[in-house]
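User: Predict the complex.
Assistant: Input components as received:
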Amino acid sequence: MTNLKRSALLLALGLAAGPALAQTIAITGGTVALGDGSEPIQGGTVIVRDGRIVAAGRDVAIPPGAQQVDAAGRWVTPGIVAGFSRVGLVEVDAVAATNDTSAGNSPFSAAIDVAPAINPRAAAVAVSRAGGVTRAVVAPETARSIFAGQGAIIDLGADMEPITRARAFQYVELGEAGADEAGGSRASAHVLFRNALREARDLGRTGISGGGATRREARANDQRDLPLEEVPENRLLGPGAQRSDDVLLTRFDAAALVPVLQGRQMLLVHAERASDILQVLALKREFPNLRLVLIGATEGWTVAERIRASGIPVIANALNDLPASFEQLAATQSNVARMRSAGVDVSLGLINNEESRQVRLSTQYAGNLVALQKVPGAAGLSWGEALRMITSGPAEALGLGGELGSLKAGRRADVVIWDGDPLENGSAPVMVMIDGVQQPLQTHQTRLRDRYRTATEGALPKAYER
Amino acid sequence: MVSSKSLILPLLAVLAACSTTTESKTPKTASAGESRSKPATYSRDPFPSTYKVYPGVPTAITGATIFDGEGGRIENGTIVLADGVVRAVGGADTPIPDGATRIDGRGKWVTPGVIDIHSHLGDYPSPSVEAHQDGNEVTGPVRPEVWAEHSVWPQDPGFTRALTNGGVTSLQILPGSANLFGGRSVTLKNVPGRTMQQMKFPGAPYGLKMACGENPKRVYGSRNQMPASRMANVAMMRQTWARAQEYKRRWDKYEKDGGEMPARDLAMETLRGVLDGEILVHNHCYRADEMANIIDMSKEFGYKVSTFHHAVEAYKIADLLKQNGICAALWADWWGFKMEAYDGINENIPFVHNAGACTIVHSDDPNGIQRLNQEAAKALAFGRKAGIQIPDEVAWTWLSINPARAMGIADKTGSLKPGKMADVVLWNGHPFSVYTRPAEVWIDGALMYDAADPARRPVTDFELGQPGEGDVK
C-alpha cells in the first residue's frame, strides 16, 4: 500500500488538495461514530496522521498546526467494510469476458487466487467508494468444486494498488450450492471436503516448498507461526513430494489447502440451513486448527446458542426473510439481532445478493435492522451495533480488526464524512478518505448525471457536453 | 379478379343456404336471417375475479401526516374509512362518524397502499426451485397467448412480506422478459387467497408484457433461433403486429357484419385487445435508443405503450416520454448487471419526474417489493442533491397514483380520495425513513396487517408447520 502513489495520483487528477501525508488532519464538529458498537458522539473530533487514526472522540485535543476539516452538521464514521462481496471482480455481470467471479472451465479450484483479477478501475469500485465503502472482503465463486479459491481484502482507493491482504481466506460452499458442485448431495460435499484436507495434510507431511527451499526448510516454514500477512503464494511441490495416484485435487489445489488445514489461512464456509451450520461447527472438532468464519447462516438464529459456543464468527445477509430455498425456510430479518443477542459474533455482508456492484447498500441494510427495534416481536439492532456490523465487525471476523474498521487510535485512516445519518435513505458521503488520503467521488454515473440533468439538447449533441 | 369473385359469390350463397337449413328449427326474428344481428363472440373475462371485500369496521385515523397519493399533504390530518372505501380525508376538524374505531396517528404517517406495477410474485415464488419457474414461456419469442394469472401460486410467501414490510396493497404480476411478447399480466389485490381469482383486482384491465433488448435476443439467439439481434427483435414484433392488425380486421368485420365466425387465435386475441385499447402495453426496455424505436413502432401499428419498465436510460429521453404520454417504471439505483443497464444513474427517477413525465418506482423483485418506499426515498434524496426539489408528498405519486394510472385502476385506488377503495397504510414514522415500517395496512377498509397483533399476520400454507412459522419476518 503505497500512500505516496496515492498522493501522486490525486495530484494528477487535479483534485482539490486532499490531506497530505505526514500532515495532521483534525475533523471537527461532526457527529462521530467510532464503528465499535458505541453510539455516536455529538461534536466529536477525529485526528488523522500519516494515514492512521491518532484519536477520535469527544474530548480530543487538536494538535497545533493540524489541518482542520469542519464537519459540523455532518456525520463522521469509519469507511464501510463490505463483509462479503465480489467487488472488483466484475465489470458487467452478464458480459462473461468482464466477469472473473468463477471459472467454470478451469482445472483449478482451491488454488485460484482472486488478487490478480481485481480491477481497481472497475466501475463498481468507484461507485462503491462514492457510497462510502472503503474496504471489501472479496470472495471468488465456486464452479465445478466446493472450493471457490482464495479471496482477498481490498481497499477501494483510486489507485492501482487495491490489495490490502491477498489470499486472506479460502472460500467453500457446504450448503445447497456445495451439494450441487459435489455431484448432487451434501454428503458428497462433506466427503470431498475431508478428502481435500487429507490430501493437503499429506502434502504438508511430505513437504512443500516455494522458491526451491529444501524439504527440511519447507517443514520448518510450515511449523513457523507465520503472521497472516505472510501467507505464502500457492507453492509448487518440493522435490521428492510423492502423491498417491488416488488423488482428486490438482497439486496446486491441494497445496492451497495446506495453510487452511494448518490454521494459517482463514476458511470461509457458506451454509444457510441449520443442519448445515451444525456440520460446519463440527468441522472444528475434526480439524482443530481450522480458523472458520460462517457465511450466510440464514437459519442461524435457530441454533444461535451452538454457534456462540463454537466461537465462530458469522457474516450474514441483513434482510433475508423469504424461504427463497429449502435451506432458508426459517428466514427472518430478526436473524442477525437474535444471533447477536445470543452472543454470536455476527456482522453483515452481501452474500449472493448483488455482491459485485451494490455493496454501497450495506448502510441501508444496516438501517433496516435498526428499524426492527420498533416492530413488535422482531429483533433489531441499536444504531451503533448496526454500524459496527458494516465496519469493524467484518474486519474483526477476518482477523483485521487491529488495522481496519474503526476510528480507534492506530487503525488505518479510512474515514467517511456523510451529509446525514449514514444509515438513513439518501445520505451520501461528502468526503471519503482511505489510508488518510482523500478520494475522488466522481463516477461514470455522476458524469452521466451531469450531462443529462435535462434530456434536451443544446446547440450541439449531448456527446459534446462534458 | 373478376373471375375469382364470380366463383366466390355462388359459394357464399350455398353456405348461407346451408346455415339457413340447419338453423331452421330455431324461431327467427325479423333480422335473424340477415347478418346484422350481434354475432356470437368470445368472453373477454373467462377467469373472473371472485375477490370479496373482507369485513372492516368504520375507522378514523387522527393526528397523522397524510400523503394523499396525488401530491397532496395534510398535517394533523384525519382519514375516515367505512364500507370498504375512503369516506373522508381532511384536517383535524373532519367529522368522525359515531362508533368509528379511532386510531391515534400522532407521530405517524398515512399513505395510500403501495402499488407495484412490476412483480413476479406467484409466478416466480419462494422457494425458488425449478418446479416453481412459471414466469416465462420460453418456447417461442412470440407468446401473447399465455396469461400470467394461470401461473400464479397464491401461496407464495412473498405476498405476505410485501404486505407487512412494504405496505403493498395492489400489484401487477407480469410474465417474464424472455419473450418479445410475453403474455398477459394480471393485477391482484394483496390479499391471501386459495385461488388466483380470489386475489384478482376486480375490473382491472389486462396488460401485455413486451420486451425489447438483450433478454429475447439472448434466449433465442443462444438457440440459433430468431431473434438473435436487436434488429430481429423489431422485425419479429412488427411482423406480429401486422398479423394482429389483419386478425383484428377479420374479427371487427365479423362482429359488425356477422357471417362465419373467424377461428380464434388466443395469441392474436391478446394483441387485438391492445389494438382496441382494452389491454395496456407494459414494455420491458432499458436503452433510450430502443425505447424510441418502440415508440415509432407503436405509432406504425396504432397502439400505445402504457409504460416502459426497467427504463434505466429513461433520463436520456425523458422529453420523449413526456411528449408521448408514456410512464417510466424504474429502480432507484440498480445498474450494471448487464450491458443495457450500464448507464444506470441514481437520479433517473427524479430526472424523469422533473421532465414532467409519469414516473413510477417498481421492484421486479421479491425483496425490493418490501422496500419500495425506501427506493423512492433514495431517488428523491439524490434528486435533491442534484438540485431537483420534489416534495415528499409529490414523490409518493411514484408509489400510488402513477402506477394506478399506468395499470388502468386509478379510478378505484392509488390515492386517498373519498369513494376510492380504502387501501391505506399507517406507517410508524416517516415513510421515507429507513427506520420506518408499516404499523397497520387496510385493503378495501379491512385490516389485513397490524404489527401489534399476531392474529393480523398472514402465514401461507407453505410455511405452516415449517421452521419459523408465524414469526415476524
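The radius of gyration of chain A is 23 Å.
Let me know if you want any component modeled separately.
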